[in-house]
From TrEMBL:
PANTHER family: HEAT SHOCK PROTEIN 70KDA. InterPro entries: ATPase_NBD, Heat_shock_70_CS, Hsp_70_fam. This is Uncharacterized protein. It comes from Eruca vesicaria subsp. sativa (Garden rocket). It comes from the Eukaryota. Residues 308-335 form a coiled coil. PROSITE patterns: HSP70_1, HSP70_2, HSP70_3. Pfam families: HSP70. The lineage of its organism: Eukaryota, Viridiplantae, Streptophyta, Embryophyta, Tracheophyta. GO terms for molecular function: ATP binding.
Length: 407
């Protein structure tokens, strides 16, 4: 048996492998830094990015360039510091920033965690999952706009607009995404103590030209010179140093907050070619959270006779507790959920106290786990490959830390 070292932002993970087996590379306990991909290849005083889609590499002399993972649910920004890529912590001290923008009735704009926290009490003015709409027309998003709490309308050209009644304005998706990008860049500028103006942004491999252009426009609106739009699975491969590989096939499994993307790549001496992609656009970590929320609400209703799903404040607390429990169950076999004063009745305050085991969590999510198999099978089928043809497997996204997902 040999030990394959994985370099991940924030630490080093190890996967034990044998020379005859395929490798499953997982940096447990660390955020998979797609946003650091731009910095994966270094050459002298400039940064070089090899990428087959558009030919020439990017070269930037003596300037700070950030790598940005603009996600459906969460986003992150990375910088080069001391010759190594580093995820920038935001003003709240977190390594990821919720891709959420909200406007209050007084006209104040909220971005990130502060916007996410008030989403339940201000649903019609809180914009999330905006990545689903960027660069798309109204006739392409019939299913997507049913999944959000804000109003999605079309302009005279059939383009998607997001309505904000709090300030009486309609936004293009790229305008909302620009607010998220601006916060990320502000955090990076604060960290570096210099103004950041150049970036590389990642997008799903299945994004079409319209979606890629709109993403680049979002960067421009945020005041950025977007040097390159790069495929997310390519970025993940670069972050693991696979650009040094020769003639290998890589399977990238990306389970984010709102979508599940699977891509097959072929890499040969720094050049990446996407062989196939498959996506379940309505399967992500949020769905696993919701199963816990529904379970907690059901238990509480049976024992206390109160439906917490109808209480906006209680629902917000349930959602936060569910996400925390999911994360803890990635390393523990059970977790305690304690929510004092979750609601009030005529008889006084009510508390929620319970224990959730990993086995129960997996039971609640059994159908979601089954759905994880389909995109993998479809991607292999489209590329006319079998799993035995895969040389490397990369798991990306926080929810790939769920043990049942890894299995």
């Amino acid at each position: 048996m040999s030990s394959a070292q994985i370099n991940v932002l924030g630490g080093i993970g190890f996967a034990t492998t044998s020379s005859s087996s395929k490798r499953n590379l997982i940096g447990k306990g660390y955020f998979m830094p797609r946003s650091s991909a731009f910095f994966a290849i270094r050459n002298g005083t400039f940064t070089t990015l090899s990428y087959s889609r558009h030919g020439c590499p990017v070269r930037v002399f003596n300037e700070k360039v950030v790598g940005i993972d603009l996600g459906t649910t969460n986003s992150a920004v990375a910088v080069m510091e001391g010759g190594k890529p580093m995820i920038v912590t935001n003003s709240e001290g977190q390594r990821t920033t919720p891709s959420v923008v909200a406007y209050t009735k007084s006209g104040d704009r909220l971005v990130g965690q502060i916007a996410k926290r008030q989403a339940v009490v201000n649903p019609e003015n809180t914009f999330f999952s905006v990545k689903r709409f960027i660069g798309r027309r109204m006739n392409e998003v019939a299913e997507e706009f049913k999944q959000v709490s804000y109003r999605v309308v079309k302009d005279e050209n059939g383009n998607v607009k997001l309505e904000c009644p709090a300030i009486g304005k309609q936004f293009a998706a790229e305008e909302i995404s620009a607010q998220v990008l601006r916060k990320l860049v502000d955090d990076a500028s604060r960290f570096l103590n210099e103004k950041v103006t150049k970036a590389v942004i990642t997008v799903p491999a299945y994004f079409n030209d319209s979606q890629r252009i709109a993403t680049k426009d979002a960067g421009r609106i945020a005041g950025l010179d977007v040097l390159r739009i790069i495929n997310e699975p390519t970025a993940a491969s670069l972050a693991y140093g696979f650009e040094k590989k020769s003639n290998e096939t890589i399977l990238v499994v990306d389970l984010g907050g709102g979508t599940f993307d699977v891509s097959l790549l072929e890499v040969d001496e720094g050049v990446f070619q996407v062989l196939s992609t498959s996506v379940d656009s309505h399967l992500g970590g949020n769905d696993f959270d919701k199963r816990i929320v529904d379970w907690l609400a059901s238990k509480f209703k049976k024992s206390k006779g109160v439906d917490l799903l109808k209480d906006k404040q209680a629902l917000q607390r349930l959602t936060e507790a569910a996400e925390k429990a999911k994360i803890e169950l990635s390393s523990l076999t059970q977790t305690k959920i304690s929510l004092p004063f979750i609601t009030f009745t005529a008889n006084g305050p009510k508390d929620l106290e319970t224990t959730l085991t990993r086995a129960k969590f997996e039971e609640l999510c059994s159908d979601l786990l089954d759905r994880c198999k389909t995109p993998v099978e479809n991607s292999l089928k489209d590329a006319m490959l079998s799993f035995s043809d895969i040389d490397e497997v990369i798991l990306v996204g926080g929810s790939t830390r769920i043990p049942a997902v890894q299995e």
